[in-house]
Amino acid sequence: MGGEGMRIIVCIKQVPDVGEVRFDPERKTVIREGGRNIVNPFDRRSVTQAVELVERYGGEVVVMTMGPPQAEEALWECLAMGADRAVHVCDRALAGSDTLVTARVLARAIERVMPDFDIVFCGKYAIDAETGQVGPEVAELLGVPIVCGLTSIEEVEPGRVLRGYRETDEGQELVEVRLPAVVTAAERLIRPRKVKEAEVVEARGKPIERMGVEALGLSAEEVGGLGSPTVVEELRIAAPTREVRFLEASDGKRAAEQLLTLIRQQLEASKREMREEVGVGPVRSSGPEVWVTVERGAEGIRSVSLELLGEAARLADRLRGQACAVVFGKVMEAETRELGERGADRIYVLEHERVKGDEVSHWGGALAEAIRLRSPVAVLCPATAEGREYAPRAAARLGVGLTGDCVGLEVDGDGRIVQLKPAFGGSIVAAIVTRTQPVMATVRPGIFALPRRENGRRAVVHSLRLSEVKEMGVRVLERRVEVEPKWGDLERARIVIGVGAGIGSAEALPMIEEVARRLGAALGATRKVVDLGWLPRQRQIGITGKAIGPEVYLAVAVRGNLNHAVGIQRAGCVIAINADPQAEIFRYADYGLVADYRTVLVSLLQVLEQEGG
Ligand SMILES: Cc1cc2nc3c(=O)[nH]c(=O)nc-3n(C[C@H](O)[C@H](O)[C@H](O)COP(=O)(O)OP(=O)(O)OC[C@H]3O[C@@H](n4cnc5c(N)ncnc54)[C@H](O)[C@@H]3O)c2cc1C
Q1: How far apart are CA 433 and CA 418, in angstroms?
Q2: Do domains 239-270+494-611 and 273-479 have the same CATH topology?
Q3: I want to staple 208 with a disulfide (CB 3.0 to 4.6 A). Which of 86, 402, 413, 602 is the partner?
Q4: Contacts of 543 (CB under 8 A, 6+ apart)
Q5: How far, in Å, from the CA of 183 to the mean position of ligand 1?
Q6: 597 Cβ closer than 6 Å to some ligand 1 atom
Q7: What are the structural domain ranges in the chain?
Q8: Is 558 in the pocket of ligand 1 (CB under 6 A)?
Q9: Using an 8 Å Cβ cutoff, are 186 and 152 in contact?
Q10: pLDDT tens digits, residue range 573-600?
Q11: What are the pLDDT digits (tens) for 291-345?
């Protein structure tokens, strides 16, 4: 699109250093000790990659942010990293903007500043809010394709195409995307450039263009809290549902024996089937529609779509409406049968030559057109790599709100669907309502129970012939599945041991792995452990990791705030070992051991070894 070289915009966000953010439950405010702000880590990778491309092909890198006056510091840092100039969209009217408004503002600014861009880089998500929605929404508003979670750039033909790998839930894909395009940077994309304080000071000499909403042709009513379709109605303190019983832990050996007896009793008594499956009731044939998008994996329909169908059936009962499954492209007889038996009253098959079941780039447009045709009241999408791309695209096309990573859905007294989302590092839950229709939300796998299959329950199948699906110019050239059999299967194991940063170092892992092996347990971790590189990201449990439902979850030196705890709410029995009697994990545990984890696990290992187990 551009002339000489590559013309690149990088959208960045200044974020609080999340490790320092705490929530004051009394005053319901955020406490930022020291108030240190940083450039969102994914954005640092974007800037580095953009600068490197321009060093190779020539051209220009513009960094852009929408944020308060102090966000200028973040722009200086990016200029020091090698960006040529910066744009700061700063206006009081922008306070309280949700992702859609943020994307609208950024898209407008991009059109003003560099309408002939080749690439717009965004981070995969910002570490404070973790929605990951702004990138896909910007792409939709600019009318260009997107590649989310880019892990490497293999080849660029300036003005034509970019080829690179992107992350998927199962591994990676080599994709080719037509330029201009938006790409979002994953952690592995590139090592971010480090800059020295003196370089940042020097970079202040580079140009920063400042603009307010008026300069973008937007009014104060269209932006900020006023213009945002999603509204935080209420902040609630996370309410634990378990009551902890502490076990005597002064003697390591005795503690280990008690622990083992407890685990075995739990396995014996567990009624897994009953806990996992909910009923869906008879077929409903009229009333408002609650939609669920159907995704497929290697083994057929993904469980998360079925879990959402169960939840849609529950909401449909409350709203006197219907639960509907939405399938992209052809549907097989076995699939329609399963969807009907798991709670769908209707199945919509989205038909268009470009809409195929295994390529996500056209799903956003297809979903938006289908929503326009049928006007559902709610649309629930899995928060998978795919769902995080097509749901925001569809929302942006329709101009409606989207709440990412919900952990619960409620119908209030006025019949509104309230979306529950953890906030502020997980110490509270935000209750969000949407001013626009449909209510759109994404939900992580494992949050809701799987609906029971009711033999013979049949859904009505409708074909929706679509006409507006635009060619996106994304081709998948290769798919790589990266399986990791070591550490067991988090989603299927009867026992999961979750390790927290309190284990001290990665050197403690072999002993814990041995305990896990002897117990037949899978190994999971907190985000901090993953961030420290002690275990891979696929092992993370929690709001931005996996939600699991083992019969026994053993939390070892895990602090246990809500961001982690939402990942274990379906666990049968939670046992926590923590040296601190005040640790939050005990609020989410059935049994607690206040002890040094080493004493307990070393003794446990000895007992298991003696048993030859
Ligand atoms: C937007 C956002 C999303 C997030 N998503 C997730 C997520 O999906 N999953 C997740 O896990 N986190 C997530 N987090 C991070 C989360 O908020 C916590 O920071 C993190 O879970 C804490 O990790 P930790 O328990 O390993 O470490 P720490 O907070 O360091 O806690 C270590 C614990 O170990 C205990 N301990 C120390 N030594 C010992 C010992 N010798 N024996 C026994 N106990 C000991 C300590 O008492 C402490 O409780 C998210 C944060 C944000 C901001």
Answers
A1: 5
A2: yes
A3: 86
A4: 130, 405, 407, 422, 426, 444, 562, 563, 564, 566, 567
A5: 31
A6: yes
A7: 6-228, 239-270+494-611, 273-479
A8: yes
A9: no
A10: 999 999 999 999 999 999 999 999 999 9
A11: 999 999 878 999 999 999 999 999 999 999 999 999 999 999 999 999 999 999 9
